Amino acid sequence: WGLGAGINISQEGASGASYVPAHIAFSTCTASAYGERMRITNKGDVGIGTTAPYYGTNVTALTVNATSYPTLSLSIGGTNSYVFMGYTTYLNIDAIGTRGIKLRTNDTDRLTITGAGAATFSGSVTVEGDNTDIENLYVNQEAIFDGHAYPYADSSYTLGTSALRWSTIYGDAGNFNGPLTGTTATFSGNVSGKRF
């Protein structure tokens, strides 16, 4: 016979008047080695793949540690459905098959991503930066607005640049209030403005 698995309870810290702080360690064997796989500390923090799970004040934590890709998998009815996988530089959240992902606050959907990749925001989207670290929001297909699009501050930003220009701008009524700059201008419809 050989060792297969074990549960170890060990003191963890100085004893109190009535209680002894302790952790519970769960161990299993591979074909060649015996090792601890999961630990519950005396404060209730759980570590899988580590003997030192994350802890903090007013925090109860679950820590999953792996050599390369720590992973948390969620199954529905025995089917692998959602996977959270940590990489060196980013977190991968995978909805398997046609499933989507929703981010919610205050019992309300804020970001919905369908299985086909369509994303819907409910609320404000802010991309922040400063003078030394400019942040950009890139849209690689179409941006459709069900409301207004306007700059954060008046007379502070441009729409396009001299090197990155819009080929065509459509409008129901071409009302421009301010200067228009360009090498060629063709207008179809009503156009009003200060100067051209």
Can you tell me about this structure?
By secondary structure, the protein is mostly beta strands. Helix content is 0%, strand content 33%. It contains no helices and 13 strands. It has strands spanning 5-11, 22-29, 34-40, 46-48, 62-64, 71-76, 79-86, 91-95, 101-105, 108-113, 119-121, 174-175, 191-192. It is elongated, with a radius of gyration of 29 Å.
Report how far apart the termini are: 92 Å
Contiguous low-pLDDT stretches (5 residues minimum) are: none
In the sheet with the most strands, the strands line up as 1-2-3-4-5
What's the helix count? 0
Share in β-strands? 25-35%
Average pLDDT figure = 85
Kindly report the oligomeric state of this protein. Answer: single chain
Q: What's the main sheet like? A: 5 strands, mixed
Helix/strand class: mainly beta
What labels describe this entry?
13 strands, three-stranded antiparallel beta sheet, mainly beta, 33% strand, single chain, five-stranded mixed beta sheet, 196 residues
Task: Write a compact overview of the structure shown.
This protein is mainly beta. The protein has no helices and 13 strands.
SSE blueprint and pairings:
Elements: E1 5-11, E2 22-29, E3 34-40, E4 46-48, E5 62-64, E6 71-76, E7 79-86, E8 91-95, E9 101-105, E10 108-113, E11 119-121, E12 174-175, E13 191-192
Parallel strand pairs: 4-5, 12-13
Antiparallel strand pairs: 1-2, 2-3, 3-4, 6-7, 7-8, 9-10, 10-11
